[in-house]
Write a structure and sequence with these properties.
Oligomer: heterodimer
CATH superfamily of chain B: RNA polymerase II/Efflux pump adaptor protein, barrel-sandwich hybrid domain
Structural class of chain B: alpha+beta
Helix content of chain B: 10-25%
Radius of gyration of chain B: 13 Å
Number of domains of chain A: 3
Strand order of the largest sheet of chain B: 1-2-3-9-8-5
CATH superfamily of the largest domain in chain A: Probable tRNA modification gtpase trme, domain 1
Strand content of chain B: 25-35%
CATH architecture of chain B: Beta Barrel
Shape of chain B: globular
CATH class of the largest domain in chain A: Alpha Beta
CATH class of chain B: Mainly Beta
Shape of chain A: globular
Strand content of chain A: 25-35%
Distance between the termini of chain A: 39 Å
CATH topology of the largest domain in chain A: Gyrase A, domain 2
Structural class of chain A: alpha+beta
Distance between the termini of chain B: 14 Å
Number of helices of chain A: 8
């Protein structure tokens, strides 16, 4: 597979970003101030991420709603045009999550479906539509001051409610704005034609948003206990195991993978995704074994140092029924971290 | 990338500063930059006997973990306790406040096997 580059690639390199491969793309992992500085800027002020590697599959037409309703777990009739919804695409056979997706319902018969970078082709196979990923960039501006910063830069592009979507015009350029994100903070995501992406980026940075890379995006989403495909979701992991039963619209008669999921619900899940905090700064890591009273009970799916809490945090699959407050141990390459099961998110969402 | 002229370097990206029979050891500017923000350092144990090439510590960043290899053989006679609370010193001052430990050399001739600054510069530019 050839490496794909964001329309903002030159902007990142000029800023001194460290570029890394991610889902077939080369994207900034951090700028010179570093992941922790970027993370705290998002919690305290406002940052801007280039998330152009997310796919966009544009679906429209009179049958678009039916196609999406059949393919995905959530129920679009709970929302409507001008709103966004988080949903899953399941494996028909075992009900595991092939991708987790945000759908922007733009207007009556028009949807932008946004899969994870590496899953765009697979999602398009399931729902049809047109892959418009390379026509646009997507900028995510996140943080308590994100909306103010976007408005200072653009006039009123930031005026969009949580999980609302609207078309707008910036300097004569058509953009789509959504009140969505992946950090646990307020914010907006803006899809802008590729040729105008650098201008919009510079305007928002000029108004005070600090560039942030995929490193901070990962530590932020982990503090907010948001799942990452390939870690908390993926082949062999159902929405029920991931604690995301709310993404499944049981009231829909039919959707891909429904039978497998109904069967799992009836027999009960074998494991559940839980939050763990660990003592000290050492990061628990994906695949580290978790024990209770010396007995192996599961393993970490994502773990890191929490820049806000200043200790280790992890998501892990544990047997159902383990109570909050239960002491656990996490084995990090032979060293034992003591920890406990906690409610999530680790850091409160805003 | 800083490569101070007075230091010696291992191919595993550790630096060595020798005073008499003692070697102070840390990771290079290049190594800390590649790791990203350091959040935890497992320093070598005081009194540990180490052989050149042994893994004797770990440096963990928000994105990965890296072993630290003993660049020379000997006994660990000092460790940098400041790193417990301030591991970010490895990023901000890799050759100063971010040092990891000191080794009392058991075989000073091992120093001849390390790179000088120009040799290390060539390695990281390679």
């Amino acid at each position: 597979m050839t490496v794909q580059y964001s329309p903002l690639d030159a902007v990142h390199r000029a800023l001194g970003a460290k570029m890394v491969p991610f889902g077939g793309w080369e994207m900034p992992v951090a700028y010179p101030l570093g992941t922790i500085d970027e993370h705290l800027a998002c919690r305290n002020h406002a940052v801007i991420f280039d998330v152009s590697h997310l796919g966009t599959v544009h679906v429209d037409g009179a049958d678009a709603l039916d196609r999406l309703q059949w393919a995905m777990t959530n129920d679009l009739t709970k929302i409507g045009p001008g709103r966004a919804q988080y949903t899953h695409l399941l494996d028909e056979q075992d009900g595991s999550v092939l991708d987790d997706i945000i759908v922007w319902w733009i207007d009556e018969e028009s949807y932008d479906v946004m899969p994870n970078a590496s899953n765009t082709a697979r999602v398009r196979q399931a729902i049809g539509g047109m892959d418009t990923t390379h026509e646009r960039a997507v900028l995510a501006v996140q943080g308590p001051q994100a909306i103010d910063v976007v408005n200072a830069a653009t006039g009123d592009l930031g005026d969009v409610g949580r999980f609302r979507v609207r078309r707008a015009t910036w300097e004569g350029v058509p953009v789509t704005v959504a009140g969505t994100g992946y950090t646990g903070e307020r914010g907006v995501e803006i899809a802008v034609p590729a040729a105008h992406a650098a201008d919009l980026w510079q305007a928002v940075v000029g108004a005070g948003a600090q560039p942030a890379g995929l490193g901070a995006r990962d530590t932020l989403r982990l503090e907010a206990a948001l799942p990452l495909h390939g870690h908390e979701l993926g082949p062999g992991i159902s929405p029920l195991q991931a604690g995301l039963g709310w993404v499944v619209a049981w009231g829909k008669d039919e959707f891909r993978g429904r039978d497998a999921l109904v069967a799992e619900r009836q027999r009960g899940v074998s494991r559940v995704l839980r939050g763990i905090t660990t003592d000290g700064r050492r990061p628990p890591r994906a695949e580290c074994p978790v024990t209770i009273d010396g007995q192996p009970v599961g393993s970490v799916t994502s773990g890191n140092f929490s820049p806000v809490l200043e200790h280790g945090i992890a998501l892990a699959f544990l047997p159902p029924g383990v109570e909050v407050g239960t002491d656990v141990a996490v084995d990090v390459r032979g060293s034992t971290l003591s920890g406990r099961v906690v409610p999530t998110p680790f850091v409160a969402k805003r | 990338m800083q490569v101070p002229a007075e230091l010696r370097y291992s191919t595993d990206h550790e630096w060595v500063a020798v005073t008499g029979t003692r070697a102070r050891v840390g990771i290079t500017d290049y190594a800390q930059d590649a790791l990203g923000d350091v959040v935890y350092v497992q320093t070598p144990s005081m009194g540990a006997a180490v052989s050149a090439g042994d893994s004797f510590g770990e440096v963990e960043s928000t994105k990965s973990v890296s072993d630290v290899y003993a660049p020379v053989s000997g006994t660990v006679v000092a460790v940098n306790d400041a790193l417990a609370e301030h591991p970010e010193l490895v990023n901000s001052a890799p050759y100063e406040g971010g040092w990891l430990c000191e080794i009392e050399l058991s075989d000073a001739t091992e120093l001849d096997g390390l790179l000088d600054a120009s040799g290390y510069q060539a390695l990281i530019e390679g």
